[in-house]
Specification:
3 helices; single chain
């Protein structure tokens, strides 16, 4: 039997820099995510959920837009 662990192939993924198309979609999705994040923060304020409020509206919307745009471009 041969030893398969000594020369295991490296599965490095080279990530490309985001293109103009990516930033366009990111901007559109960010503009749609901002009101949703603001509503979520307002609800968190009303329910006294300090952890959700501490994150901030822009950071929450940015994360949602980044996730959605990445899903679109990975398909």
């Amino acid at each position: 039997m041969s030893d398969q662990t000594s020369n295991a192939p490296h599965l490095a993924r080279h990530s490309k820099a985001p293109t103009a198309e990516y930033w366009f979609y990111f901007g559109v999705i960010l503009m749609a995510a901002l009101p949703i994040a603001a509503i979520g923060t307002a609800i968190a304020l009303l329910t006294c959920n300090r952890e959700a409020v501490r994150e901030g509206v822009l950071r929450k919307a940015w994360a949602q837009a980044q996730t959605a745009t990445s899903l679109i471009f990975s398909a």
